Amino acid sequence: MMLRTCPVLYSKAGPPTGGWQPLSFDDGAFHLKGTGELMRALLVLRLCAWPPLVTHGLAIQAWSQRLLGSRFSGALLRASIYGQFVAGETAEEVRDCVQQLQTLSLRPLLAVPTEEEPDSGVKTGLLETPGPNGNILMQLKVTALTSTQLCKELTSWVRRPGVSLELSPERLAEAMDSGQDLQVSCLSTEQNQHLRASLSRLQRVVQHAQAQHVRLLVDAEYTSLNPALSLLVAALALRWNKSRESGPWVWNTYQAYLKDTYERLRRDAEAADRAGLAFGVKLVRGAYLDKERDAAQLQGTKDPTQPDYEATSQSYRRCLELMLTHVSHRGPMCHLMVASHNEESVHQATKSMWELGIPPDGPVCFGQLLGMCDHVSLALGQAGYAVYKSIPYGSLEEVIPYLIRRAQENQSVLRGARREWELLSQELRRRLLGRGLRVPS
Predict the structure, then answer these.
(1) Is the pLDDT of residue 115 over 70?
(2) Which residues face 336 on adjacent strands?
(3) Virtual CA dihedral for 166, 152, 117, 339, nearest 10 degrees?
(4) Which residues contact 394 (CB under 8 A, 6 or more apart)?
(5) What is the per-residue pLDDT across 316-341, written as a single tens digit (0 to 9) for each?
(6) pTM attached to this predicted model
(7) CA 351, 352, 356, 360: dihedral to nearest 10 degrees?
């Protein structure tokens, strides 16, 4: 769903008259949901906050299939975890989910459920889903189109001082456009062949996405891959994020839990400004904390992550203010998704938007996972902000491993969902026992 843009620089307008009023995230947003949805959400969120279930999710799934049979086990999953977090398997089911979101003033962010071992064939598709002007946003995992091994090899060269101009974004972009027989001396013949095929796939995906009015948000992954991913995004941006292309069609994701994120974001934003390119950013806290620390310890390298949650939150606040300032100066040439389940971050973003004169439904939007943090999503949507829910789709066999991996990566978020449980319980008690009856928690 493409965001509506304003033809003037928002900073010139200044903040609107009157004082800023923070959104209320507990004043009945759940009244928009059905009772069955509330009960399922309460059950599933409680189960997902239980560490043993998340840690051993794949083993438990395999055990339930052997004990209960695939059919009954699948039915239980569809009625619980799958139904809570997945849009559906068919295009029709996805459209129904999108339409339901739209009735709640929410928007779809399609997420293809792929894992980071893409050397075998995987699917990457663009579903036609309804939305304002037929426009949507979609997450793109680059390792669904190129191998992790090649990304690691590219990363090792990109990180070296004085890296050859052979691996510049300009040269890769030229190869994408011209289809020339790209040869990079630091890569083997097989790796060069795979790089050319990957560039061709990426070019075709973005070309098709733009034709369908779909903006692609490239997922960040591990630090062993991210420099290569950023190189590929930079090459795509040179072709698809030019001013004549109506804003950024390719966005990059920045993980605030990494120590170098603020400086990288600042450099990239300034470079896009100097080059006259549109700039799209999805700002997240990050999901690979434990694995990044374990990898650094195993390799004897410096830990790339922030030391604790507060440091990560401080990094997120700095990155958020930096990007909002760029949006206020560049208007529709700079887009930002505040991808956070944290109420404090959302309050900070909405207040800064008000102070900078950025309209609620402008080039700043918010993102949360389908089935989580609905009290924040619904409050934002009802207040007129652009809010996207990340919606994976696919069969049980495709999606359940993806969901379990996401749950393992977001255990801190799931364990911190107590406030959402309380709001869900409160709304259920109100419906089931009567509005005026006081019931102890």
Answers:
(1) no
(2) 281, 364
(3) -90
(4) 86, 89, 112, 113, 123, 402
(5) 999 999 999 999 999 999 999 999 99
(6) 0.88
(7) -60
